[in-house]
Amino acid sequence: ADCEITLADTILIGVEHTEALFHVAYVNAELNENFTIFNTSLQASNFYWTFDTGASVLTSTAFEPTLSYNSLGLKTTTLIAESQYGCRDTLMDTGPYVYSSQGLPAHCWG
User: Fold this and answer.
1) DSSP-derived secondary structure for 8-52
2) What is the pLDDT of residues 32-42, one digit of tens each?
3) Is residue 69 helix, strand or coil?
4) Quick one: pLDDT at residue 30?
């Protein structure tokens, strides 16, 4: 015989809102100058960073990595932020612009 039972209950479902967020300490950084990337991610506990060519480190799992670049130009950083339950968000952003002050007049920095 086929039997059917209907149950009524309340089930609470938590929804995560993991968001990858960061900003670079400098808009401009001199060649080989160390700078920090500040992590402002929401509801995340694991961080996977990828940096542009010429970075002193190409990847990191640090909360707020410090690095430098040995090549000139605008750099790109990618952050994957992951929650303790595996929810992920990715942010790719530019900065800093890496420059060299070598050969420029002193009054340019004055």
Assistant:
1) -----------B--EEES-SEEETT--EEEEE--BS--EEEEEE-
2) 999 999 999 99
3) strand
4) 95
Cβ contact 46:10 at 8 Å? no
The 8-class DSSP code of residue 109 comes to G
Task: Write the CB contacts of 21 (distance below 8 Å, at least 6 apart in sequence).
Answer: 39, 40, 41, 42, 81, 91
CA distances from 18 to 22, 37, 56, 80 (A): 13, 19, 28, 10
Structural contact between residues 70 and 56, judged by C-beta atoms closer than 8 angstroms = yes
List the chain residues with pLDDT less than 70.
1-2, 106-110
Do 31 and 99 touch, CB atoms closer than 8 A? yes
Per-residue pLDDT at 72: 97
Helix (H) or strand (E) holding 93: strand 88-99
